[in-house]
Design brief:
alpha/beta; OB fold (Dihydrolipoamide Acetyltransferase, E2P); 5-stranded mixed beta barrel; 6 strands
């Protein structure tokens, strides 16, 4: 009498399970859409949990792969649009709206409403920031996931000087960057 070998059946089940589990994150990732834009903060309504922003560019420009982190442009969004974005001021870093500076990490590591409020105060209102948001049901139409404050040219130069570069080296790097930008 022949006995069935349990090992091949077990391996087949194992491979099926691995294939399912490895495909699942890709399926969930395909559903979650993240959009990116540049905009200026017009106000924060703490009671309603929303930022009011004015879009300065529906597409994130400059930086290294900035479109990848922030996301692609939202359909139908254009420069000059004013919109509200829902924010989550407290909770884990994976759930709340994160406000970070390009020269460092998050401006609020507490996960509290007060910490978020302090980080909001650091958002410049005289220049655009990078906004990363996801669509949601209901109003407002989008949930803000991240705000990235870019360094101004003056802040970049100061940082390079702090790192020990001479003004000549900084000027040379800026010329090289301008030549690269104009070639694209």
């Amino acid at each position: 009498m022949l006995r069935a070998r349990p090992l091949p059946a077990f391996l087949a089940l194992g491979f099926t399970l691995v294939a399912f589990l490895s495909a699942a994150p890709a399926a969930f990732a395909a559903e979650a859409k993240r959009f990116g834009a540049e905009g200026m903060l017009l106000g924060y309504d703490e009671a309603r949990g929303v930022f009011k922003v004015k879009i300065t560019s529906p597409k994130v420009s400059g930086g290294f792969g900035s479109g990848g982190i922030a996301g692609k442009p939202a359909p139908g969004m254009k420069s000059g649009d004013e919109l509200e974005l829902e924010v989550v001021p407290e909770g884990s870093v994976l759930k709340r709206t994160v406000i970070k500076a390009s020269k460092g990490g998050g401006l609020d590591n507490s996960g509290t409403k007060q910490g978020f409020k302090n980080a909001v105060a650091a958002i410049p209102t005289d220049r655009a920031v990078v906004l990363s948001f996801e669509p949601k049901t209901g109003e407002p139409k989008y949930l803000l996931k991240m705000v990235q404050i870019r360094m101004s040219p003056e802040e970049v130069q100061k940082r390079l000087r702090d790192l020990g570069l001479s003004q000549e080296e900084i000027d040379e790097a800026e010329r090289a960057n301008t030549d690269t930008d104009s070639a694209n």
